[in-house]
Amino acid sequence: MKVVISFLKPQLPKLTLLILCIVGFLIRTHGIDWDSGHHLHPDERFLTMVTNALKIPRTFTDYLNPTTSTLNPNNVGYAYFVYGIFPLFITKMVGVWLGMDNYAQITLVGRAVSALFDTSTIIAVFLIAQIFVRKLDLNKNISFFAAFVYMFFALPIQQSHFYTADTFATAFGAWSIYFALLYYERNLILWIIVSAIFLGFSIASKVSGVYLLPFYLGLYLSKLRPWAWLKERKINTRLVLTILTSGILFSIALYLSTRIADPYYFESKNILDPKLSTAYKTNIANSKHLGSGFEVWFPPAVQWFSKSTEIEYLCQESSEKCSLIARHFKLPNDKVLLNNLPKFISCRDNLPCRLRIHLNVFGIRNLLVFGIGIPSSMFLIFGTLILFLKHRNYNLLHWLVSVMGLITLYFTTQMVPAMRYHYQIYPILAVLVGIGISEFVQNFILKLKPIKRMILLIVILVVVCGWGVGLLRIYSVPHSRITASKWIYDNLPTGATIALETWDDGLPLGADPAIMKGKTYKYVALDVWGADTEAKWGVLKPLLNKADYYIATSNRAWGSILPLKNRYPIQSKYYQDMINGVGDFKIIKEINSYPGLCLPNSKWCLEVPDQWSEEAFTVYDHPQVLIFKKNN
Length: 632
Prior knowledge:
Structural class: alpha+beta
Radius of gyration: 27 Å
Distance between the termini: 79 Å
Strand content: 5-15%
Helix content: 40-55%
């Protein structure tokens, strides 16, 4: 027995990490076919269509040629494509290998691969935390706490259930950070080359991987230590040459890995020509414009109008002076904050002064409340304070955390601070939460008696993982739109006319003939997103008069438009009257699927209504469905 214990003891950390990875992967693949093959995630549906259309090129040379490659979306009928191709390439290869390269099954392949990549992020978090432990002389348990909390973070669990690019980009980014820290710790150039390769893969998955670049600038500055040169008035030439060589190798490896993993970011097949693709730059510019400001009427952007204050530094009419103008949905008119500000450029010829930002804390709230959960957020704040106040020998690790903060701050100044845009900082957030838990345990729990200590530690871990576990409930029950479809077939008469909103999935979904009962329905499509003009309502009113039922298959439309009373005075009142039951339609059925903790084989269930979160957190895998009937 002693021999077994002596053998297992040094292997315990590896065994623990292995268990965390197995459990993490099972969590991420639980209910993997959550929409029962209906493709209810629009971004995922788009990637599925593109992946299905792609063909593996015959040669590597063909693959590298953006103008002819059959793996380039532009060449297979999808000219508007703003993602990296690398996740699709990986999924396509796995799908071909498994014989699942078809529209019906490639989504499941993508979800499984997505879950696998995010499981690898658990390992990267563990290893990054170990470097924090070694460099800052922290408690070794931090690594396990960090991996544990990341395993149960809600956003990674949800994103792992989707076939999208985010899990791939985050995993590659986390591994790149780990190997960069390894280079920082051990001074071996091999590790910075490996780091550059993974960073290139992250960018080839999603171009937002470039937001990590400031971290690498800090890495080389921490190696060079120019502030020491100024103090000593002496330059270490050998060190400069070593760092310069490392930087050149890093740049070459980064360029080549990005170029090979996604050749279609670039204009030509010439690997020595770094010119970016004109088509890709146009697509990115168009994408940015669609979420650029309050004057845009793009439906997916409307949700952000009520959550953002737009600040613009611009010219006033008949004036050469600039002012700060604030726009918010609660302000009936633009509000002039400051007049006669210094000009960036002349206001002549209606040239704008060159500044526009958005103040938006909604994204941070979503990150803290829904992305990682309130208990983890409390430990995140505590861990960050401990890192900066207790460990004041500031180094690259502090800069790494600061870069994650700068990324968050950047999205706070954007009109669209979607939760998944912050996804790449989650591995470092997990490390900070791990530090917070460990310090709390060290300072407040270890002083207690063993039994109380164990009970409190278990309570902390259960509370921290509770939100992630609760999210799993939505993958354990039928999708709300599937439940709603069954109710519609059971209760709505055949031949009824159903009004559905554009930019959302319609109901009822196709189902088993036994469920459909031979019923068929007529449909009218309502474009509710345009400005409240007479022309808009001249189109909508006849359609609404035809409809017997009105089905809001999520809160995408009414949840976005209802608060915008200044922008949608008629549409918002129409929704409010419907909800209050005094309009043309009244609610006859509400179907929800909330995260929660439920006892098996019991009616007891603690549900957490989360419809006040970011739209994208609910409308794909657990939307609220409202069914209205014409009011007599």
